[in-house]
Amino acid sequence: MSSEPSETKATRVTSFDVAERAGVNQSTVSRALAGSPQVTPATRERVLAVARELGYTVDQRASGLRTGRTDTVAVVILQGPEDKAPSGNPFYFELLGSICEAASARGLETLVSLQSEDGRLSGDYVKRGQADGTIVIGSARHSSAWTYFQQLQRSTGNLAFWGSPFDDARWVRSDNHGGGRIATSHLLDRGYRKIAFVGPLGTGPGQFAERFAGYREALAERGAQPIEASIYPDGDRKSQGYHAARDMIERDGSIDAFFAASDRLAFGVLDYLKEIGRDVPEDVGIVGFDGMSAGTISSPPLTTVAPDLAKAAEALLRMAIDGETSVTQRVNVKLIERASVRPA
Amino acid sequence: MSSEPSETKATRVTSFDVAERAGVNQSTVSRALAGSPQVTPATRERVLAVARELGYTVDQRASGLRTGRTDTVAVVILQGPEDKAPSGNPFYFELLGSICEAASARGLETLVSLQSEDGRLSGDYVKRGQADGTIVIGSARHSSAWTYFQQLQRSTGNLAFWGSPFDDARWVRSDNHGGGRIATSHLLDRGYRKIAFVGPLGTGPGQFAERFAGYREALAERGAQPIEASIYPDGDRKSQGYHAARDMIERDGSIDAFFAASDRLAFGVLDYLKEIGRDVPEDVGIVGFDGMSAGTISSPPLTTVAPDLAKAAEALLRMAIDGETSVTQRVNVKLIERASVRPA
Questions:
Q1: H helix count then E strand count, chain B
Q2: pLDDT, tens digit, for every residue of A137-183?
Q3: Does one domain contain both B36 and B125?
Q4: Shared domain check, B190 and B111
């Protein structure tokens, strides 16, 4: 029987095996692999060569216990029943993609945990040695979950929030107020006169409420009045947008524009306008919020206010990993002009 | 000066502290927390109460070194330059969402690593003690990266692939051949006669080639001929779909249907047909592949072949975590009827 080492079940090679083969102490192997200046370049080269030859890999758990680092950021995504994959909230996964990329650029990996308000909540990743910091992403609707994470943030550092409903915490948010102004001013500049706001406002300082405040301010500066929908039935954002648009148009058929507080709400508005035969953007203009890639596929493609997700990811990492002490951070937004608003 | 314990920087509570307070040995604490039957229920209750009181949390690294488990699945997403967030390949993130949910249902967390062909590739998560298994997701285009992972799979277990370009590996795939047949038969059943295939085929047994084979077979059974585009310029899938549709319609204006090998290709086909004023679905029918949620937003909403992503996630986890030995697994697909094909 011939023995094929590459076919046999591998026994784990340890740093002691490397030390023996290289003719040094085990502690020298550890120091060499950690890049310690106490080890000469020649010894380091010999240790690395033997480690490669034996297929020695550092066990990150043991290494982490020594260094205290995990080189990992944990990301908790709070989901409601309406956010389940694959038709859930794609914005969270677009932000997650940006966090993964920013983490990767810093040499970090990303540990993702989907959690729901009615399930077991957990943000103890740093304490449990699984991450160097934790980011929580979710909608303000999950208020009891946010209360749990807010309390956790008071007792630990390295925890950063996106979407939390309270001001009294360390979070990163879009410049929602500025975004509401930009969207509304753009519609006014293009000649629309009766601009309705689509987005349930709930209570407290949520992101939608901040967008609404910017909308109202931009209208007031031109002497115009805000127009709000009165009903938002349960359901997904698209369906809520559809019903809000119908509610408003049925009350006042002269409404000629909508600022929707999220792109998914805007897709529902588009559906309703198509159903009643209104031409977008000739008869009615629409601006969304989020800059979602799906907005390139709608008909017409959706003009939207987009937060800089790369900057958002970097700010969240600075707060979660570097423990940056600023309480809050605002991320710039910009208007992406597609085709749901009349050209100038 | 008053001392506020909750405000001071926490010193880590160890299992020895718990043991001392509970009046047992440290090894009893470990056994109690691990649910060992060697510990009486009364002792276990006392240890748990003290652990809660002191705020003791098990360090997963130390625990993992003892148990050999990490309760984590690693997911590598292979990205090309065209796949960057946030406008990258949303299908990968829809599949990732399904994997996160299936992992969560099994009590696992998900470690995500974005990797690119020209960067440092790594699939050693199990060996490094960071995961109990690894799933690699990517497009067949990243052939040199797949070669690396294929070699890794030959020397280690607990590695599962989605999207790998070779048959000689342990992978999970959609029933691409069946899906191609379903899409094509559906178009034929609804009265379309000249059905073109949109999708660059490249070389080897890629997923697009399997979809094409199903398409060709369904056509042959009805005595029809396949129609292929000759050009696929570089660029994203939507742009490739646009150019392929233009190429084919310019050669043969009587083409009355398209089967696009991915939804993003289909969105490009829709764009071109809108540009030349063809009515979808009256003049031309389109079926995509992937079941992406963005297909609900296109105009008209896209009829598509959808793999069962929940089943795909479960199969990938069984292969990666349980080390299931079956070489390959096919996931069922189904037709999602929206509005880009004429009603019956």
A1: 11, 12
A2: 988 778 889 999 999 998 888 999 998 888 888 899 999 999 999 99
A3: no
A4: no
Facing residue for B297 by CB, picked from A59, A104, A297: A297
- Amino acid found at B195: I
Percentage of chain A beyond pLDDT 70 is 89
> B207: distance to nearest CA of chain A, Å?
20
State which residues form the domain around B255: 174-307+330-336
Q: Is residue A151 less than 8 Å (CB to CB) from chain B?
A: no
B86 and A104: CB-CB below 8 Å? no
Residues A280 and A264 sit within 8 Å (Cβ to Cβ): no
Check if the beta carbon of residue A311 is closer than 8 Å to that of residue B311.
no
* B262/B241 Cα distance (integer angstroms): 9
Nearest CA in chain B to A91: B86
Token duo for residue A289: 């919020």
B236-272 pLDDT per residue, tens: 889 999 999 999 999 999 999 999 999 999 999 999 9
Q: Does B272 touch chain A (CB under 8 A)?
A: no
Task: Examine residue B321 and state whether it is found in any structural domain, yes or no.
Answer: no
Average pLDDT estimate for A226-244: 89
CB contact under 8 A, A65 and B64: no
Residue B194 lies in a domain: yes
- For the complex shown, is ipTM > 0.90? no
Q: What's the mean pLDDT in B84-95?
A: 71
Q: Does one domain contain both B24 and B96?
A: no
Is residue A196 within 8 Å of residue A227, measured between CB atoms?
Answer: yes
* A58, A114, A293 member nearest B87 (Cβ): A293
Do A25 and A79 lie in one domain? The reply is: no
Is A111 close to B112, i.e. CB distance below 8 A?
yes
For residues B186-209, give the mean pLDDT: 89
The residue of chain B nearest to residue A12, with distances taken between CA atoms, is: B127
Same structural domain, A164 and A184: no
Same domain? For B54 and B100 the reply is no
Quick one: A47 and A157 in the same domain? Answer: no
Cα separation, A99 vs B54, in Å, equals 34
B-interface mutation test, from A7, A72, A91, A109, most B Cβ less than 10 A away:
A109
One domain for residues B28 and B114: no
Q: Which of A79, A83, A112, A265 to mutate to test the interface with B (most CBs of B within 10 A)?
A: A112
Residues 191-250 of B with CB under 8 A from A: 238
Which helix (H) or strand (E) is A264 found in, with range?
helix A263-275
The CATH number of the domain where B54 resides is what? 1.10.260.40
Q: Strand A109-116 relative to strand B109-116: parallel, antiparallel, unpaired?
A: antiparallel
Three-state DSSP at A106 gives coil
CB contact under 8 A, A57 and B297: no
pLDDT surpassing 50 at residue B208: yes
- Domain assignment present for B316: no
Inspect the interface and report whether the beta carbons of A128 and B65 lie closer than 8 Å: no
Domain count of chain A?
3
Q: How many CB pairs under 8 A join A and B?
A: 158
How far away is chain A from the Cα of B36, in angstroms, using its nearest Cα?
21
Whether residue A82 has pLDDT greater than 70: no
Q: pTM score, two decimals?
A: 0.80
Please report whether residue A102 resides in a domain.
Answer: yes
Closest to A327 in 3D by CA, of A165, A157, A180: A157
The CATH number covering residue A128 comes to 3.40.50.2300
Q: What is the pLDDT of residue B1?
A: 40
* Alpha-carbon distances, residue A178 vs A37, A328, B274 (angstroms): 51, 16, 35
CB contact under 8 A, A294 and B293: yes
